[in-house]
Amino acid sequence: MYNNQYALAYNPFDKQQLPEKDCFRSKDFQEMTARLDYLKDTRGIGLFTASPGMGKTYALRCFAKSLNPNLYHMEYICLSTVSVAEFYKQLCFILGVPAKGGKPGMFKAIQEQVWYLYHEKRQPLFLAIDEAQYLSTGVLNDIKMLMNYGYDAVNCFTLILCGESHLNGTLRRPIHEALRQRITVHYNYQGLTDEEAVAYIIHKLECAGAARTVVNEAAMRAVAGQAHGNPRLIDNIMNDAVTIGAQTNKTTIDTEVILAAVNNQNLG
What percent of the chain has pLDDT over 90? Predict the structure, then answer.
């Protein structure tokens, strides 16, 4: 219904429908991507933190799409509420090595496969762990040991830790000092500015083939004020707004429609 009302080829505020090639390059997105690009050559640990809905996982997905699979081996883990043994089994599974011999056997198999990818196949591993704020102390300690190659003289793979902002506090604990010192790059999301939020809405509308006048300036400013720099909240509000606007036969989405959408989201 809203597709016809607003000449949308698809719903641009549905995260499943916007192609990675059409990503909005906010300051946060560019800062994270620049650090990930740096890690392609240096390897080591990258730490990326943000409040929920800020877009760090989406930026990671866009980066993964950009990687040449002939040059890098990218793997992604989002199940981080696991024991040390289960974590090792996950790594064995994604690396295609047998999960046997207990922790010592799995540790050896993982390190040998990572070394093979780096030294023999010339496709260093990029391992991304999402929701890393849930990783236990035991897993974090073992991650530190897995990074140790050649008497700690070589970075054989890249580890990307993505999590909520309180992960920074966890890593500042004395028990994690050795791991924290190994972090090569770090970025904590700041959120969209009001100007970026407006540009974000316009960008998504135009990617879906709609005119920017579908939403008036005051309405976009109202969304920016309600979302507090959070892209997911913007998407949620705008998703409801285009539906409500179409249902009420509004040719332009105005502040009245946005207020209804905000109320529908229980944000008001």
Answer: 83
